[in-house]
């Protein structure tokens, strides 16, 4: 691999895996409950559910969630990949995913055997009545944010056609240039969560990718249905992780500190990309710079590899992503500085 042969080592910006430490407060919460011989509850502890409700209100202004409408996920990837099946969808159903998307939405549709359609707006859907619409704001990979009006239109459309909206809010806590709102925000859904699911991961905002910690919340009836299936399928979050997740959701200081780390890295990398002649599109939030040199993204991946930098080709995320590359902010300050130096050296 060309990037690996750089004398100062590779800078891997191709994946969004966190590199900063897990906060001591979270580690302690995990370690304190190592002696747990019994089965944990699929629904999570009452403390976990209450902490999730409080965190959503405190951090994002989402109100009106009943604690019972919170369900832990063993990382949100498994929940997303399993959602169409868990909801009982099949060949007769249509799942809508974003034009340029995190690949797991399509994986979920494939596993359930549904039809899939890529669309960023409801007008693209014509007379179709989808069973499920995946949203992802802020987006991986583009960093695009869907505003209140856009989200309202999707909710209205979904209600008219009987669709469920699953909003993947993995990057909601990492908004830089535009505010990002939840599908459950009262300005979006008028406080009515019927047919709506919000999916929250702690992987990025709390550096808990290694713990596998996330949850889904929203429509109490849908969450109850998911709980029943997951209970019988054994999709149970380990008790120590439930404890760690409760601690992480109850503390905002570590999350704020992590956000500031990413903010600083983004500034360095964005400026270096600009100086190197890249254009960064969207990317107003989230952990990626959706970048182009006005050529095929595969050529850009090669150009970066010559400088020892690894990026993901845009076509991996959808056919309209061919001219872009996704550059992640998830590297140490030292590696981000190394990337910036290489980008601006020519
Ligand atoms: C948009 C999006 N959703 C969900 C996930 C899954 O995160 P996890 O399974 O770690 O909760 C990721 C991870 O990169 C992501 O980018």
TrEMBL record:
It holds the Pfam family Aminotran_1_2. Residues 10-343 form the Aminotransferase class I/classII large domain. Gene3D superfamilies: Aspartate Aminotransferase, domain 1, Type I PLP-dependent aspartate aminotransferase-like (Major domain). It is an enzyme of class 2 (transferase). Keywords: Aminotransferase, Transferase. PANTHER family: AMINO ACID AMINOTRANSFERASE, L-GLUTAMINE--4-(METHYLSULFANYL)-2-OXOBUTANOATE AMINOTRANSFERASE. Belongs to the class-I pyridoxal-phosphate-dependent aminotransferase family. This is Aminotransferase. It comes from Nocardia albiluteola.
